[in-house]
């Protein structure tokens, strides 16, 4: 599958002819200032939780593209209140089928609130199955043994994990998470954007390699095959 990285935790996967975009936070990110948000394609947008660094560009992109936006029920209501009518609720344990394939919502261990401080519902991750491959985006999370349940239902081709530490898993925990979900291809996200999540890239790549895992750290704006 083709995957494009837009910085922080924002990435897009092209699967079954559809553009699947996750956690759009681009315009405030100095590291992604060369990205033109209005040129981003999206048929579906998935929101893992309500923190500003995961939702700030969702209104703009959704209104530009007409994409269907999925998030927990609190995020769903927030989307409707902000004029995004093509919204769809999904909570942990829930699964829906769309024209690209299926998406199952799973738990993440992380807080969630909107920019005004109101409750943003439970933080989540997503497991997607498509004819082109299957993958798991954990969202912002700590390492949790709940991840062991994922390969019982879905054989994954790759996973997307936060590796910046401090606010989420770091490299050590992401390596263990990779083993729990039984993948050897991992896209690392949620690092370098802020001073307190800056990361040693070479050490991260080396640590994953020593664990017989492949860590992908594409440059912002790059598209890779994974």
TrEMBL record:
Leader peptide range in chain numbering: none
Keywords: Hydrolase
SMART domains per record: Lactamase_B
Metallo-beta-lactamase domain: residues covered: 7-190
A single MF term (Gene Ontology): hydrolase activity
Stated name of the protein: Metal-dependent hydrolase
């Amino acid at each position: 599958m083709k995957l494009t990285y837009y910085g922080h935790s924002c990435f897009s996967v092209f699967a079954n002819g559809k553009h699947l975009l996750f956690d759009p936070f681009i315009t405030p990110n100095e590291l992604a200032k060369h990205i033109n948000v209005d040129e981003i394609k999206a048929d579906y947008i998935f929101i893992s939780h309500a923190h500003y660094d995961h939702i700030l560009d969702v209104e703009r992109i959704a209104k530009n593209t007409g994409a269907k936006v999925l998030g927990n029920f609190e995020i769903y209501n927030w989307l409707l209140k902000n004029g995004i009518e093509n919204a769809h609720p999904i909570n942990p344990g829930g699964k829906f089928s769309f024209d690209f394939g299926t998406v199952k919502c799973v738990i993440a261990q992380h807080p969630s609130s909107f920019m005004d401080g109101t409750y943003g519902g439970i933080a989540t991750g997503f497991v997607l199955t498509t004819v082109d491959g299957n993958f798991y985006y954990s969202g912002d999370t700590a390492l949790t043994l709940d991840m062991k349940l994922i390969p019982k239902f879905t054989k994954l081709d790759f996973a997307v994990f936060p590796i910046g530490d401090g606010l989420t898993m770091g490299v050590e925990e992401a390596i263990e998470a990779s083993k729990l979900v039984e993948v050897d291809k991992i896209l690392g996200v949620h690092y370098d954007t802020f001073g307190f999540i800056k990361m040693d890239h070479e050490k991260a790549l080396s640590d994953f390699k020593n664990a017989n895992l492949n860590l992908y750290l594409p440059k912002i704006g790059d598209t890779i095959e994974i």
